[in-house]
Design goal:
Layout: H1 12-27, E1 31-34, E2 39-41, H2 43-51, E3 60-61, E4 64-65, E5 73-74, E6 80-83, H3 84-94, H4 108-111, H5 114-125, E7 143-144, H6 148-153, H7 158-162, H8 168-171, E8 194-196, H9 200-215, H10 222-232, H11 253-264
Parallel strand pairs: 7-8
Antiparallel strand pairs: 1-6, 2-8, 3-6, 4-5
Helix pairs in contact: 1-3, 9-10
Length: 270
């Protein structure tokens, strides 16, 4: 849907409210995945993930983050899912005079942070809690707030790592990783759903190499995967300001990069 011209660039809360209302009222899907336009999404993995869930129940899932003194929330960068029931309840809450879910009834700071305002509404007003969506087998993440290269190499921002340090307090103690994102082949679940900061040219190259690895998993060699990626992957400025280019051809990082490509390639359909 196109946002009306009356909603300006900085009107984050009104924009989110308009989008959720429009999706719920005109499409009424079982689930909606909220993500921005430079995010790479594996639709088959998202579909498989949602098949196990019930849209008649509340749902707010993605990649959980939490600052030391703030409400836990799901990263808007990696995207989050709301169920039909949650969207319906949220709209009703917005329509209640005096509700703490309305931007007019909260601080100026929260008015400028629609994701945090919504998360606070879910948890403190509607009683909807976050879910640990990591892979049950190896605790790797399914929703990623950075692109492939930065996720595999672990070259992410410190603020992002800091917002994982408080997750023990809401999900219970993780003795192995303390909910911190891992690098290398452990970064990404075989059921990975999204990567953020992926511009158009990188989206195409990423999709193509995953398709190739899926279609010939036993016959394509590691060297072929590497060669194809080097040939097709865009360089700056096409990869975007927040993305990192592929590693140098002799870098040991390629071992993990190829493992991750093979690991998640089952999420691609022809």
């Amino acid at each position: 849907c196109l946002v009306p011209e009356t909603i300006k660039f900085d009107d984050g809360v009104p924009r989110l409210e308009y989008v959720i209302r429009t999706i719920h009222n005109t499409i009424d899907p079982d689930f909606a995945f909220f993500v921005n336009d430079h995010t790479f999404v594996l639709p088959n993995h998202l579909h498989q993930f949602l098949k196990l869930l019930d849209s008649s129940k509340d749902l707010y899932v993605g990649h959980a983050l939490k600052g030391e003194k703030e409400t836990a929330f799901n990263s808007g960068a990696s995207g989050y899912v709301l169920s039909r029931t949650t969207m319906s309840r949220l709209i009703k809450e917005w329509d209640k005079p005096g509700s703490k879910c309305q931007s007019a009834n909260v601080s100026k700071w929260l008015q400028g942070n629609p994701g945090l305002l919504t998360a606070k509404c879910f948890q403190e007003v509607m009683g909807i809690q976050l879910v640990d969506t990591r892979d049950k087998e190896d605790s790797s993440h399914k929703f990623h707030a950075y692109g492939l290269v930065r996720t595999v190499t672990g070259s992410v921002d410190q603020w992002y790592l800091n917002k994982h340090q408080q997750l023990d307090s809401i999900f219970g103690i993780d003795e192995r990783y303390h909910h911190m994102p891992q690098k290398g082949a452990l970064c990404c679940s075989k059921d990975t759903i999204s990567f953020h900061y992926v511009e158009a040219a990188e989206n195409i190259a990423f999709w193509n190499i995953l398709q190739e690895a899926k279609q010939q998993p036993d016959s394509i060699s590691d060297e072929q995967i590497k060669k194809t990626m080097i040939q097709e992957w865009p360089q700056r400025p096409e990869i975007g300001a927040y993305a990192h280019p592929l590693p140098a051809s002799q870098s040991p990082v390629w071992n993990d990069m190829i493992k991750v490509i093979r690991k998640i390639s089952s999420g691609v359909t022809s």
